[in-house]
Amino acid sequence: MAEMREPTFLVLTVLADGPRHGYGIIRDVAELSGDRVKLLPGTLYAALDRLVAQGLVEHVRDEIAEGRLRRYYSLTGAGLEALRAETARLRQLATVAEARLRAVNPRLA
């Protein structure tokens, strides 16, 4: 699989903790990213549709809360594996960067 864009990585990371509805995903992605990544509903649902089509995420249920429809999504087994692979890729890159920083100045790492 190709490398993931950060919003996709964050959505999968949020869903690794269990099913979430759209607003919950938006809120948790913002919190996880320190408010750097703020997903708009249209952007999120387009991403979720893409992730469902790729088999990484599945729609698990709907509920009505305060008169509004909430769609819940969950990570699939393939989504979990994709998240693990991307996490390993990012970890490997960070390890290389840290080693290079230490080589330049041991106090930088």
UniProtKB/TrEMBL annotation:
Gene3D superfamilies: Winged helix-like DNA-binding domain superfamily/Winged helix DNA-binding domain. Pfam families: PadR (PF03551). Residues 11-84 form the Transcription regulator PadR N-terminal domain. PANTHER family: PADR-FAMILY TRANSCRIPTIONAL REGULATOR. This is PadR family transcriptional regulator. It comes from Rhizocola hellebori.
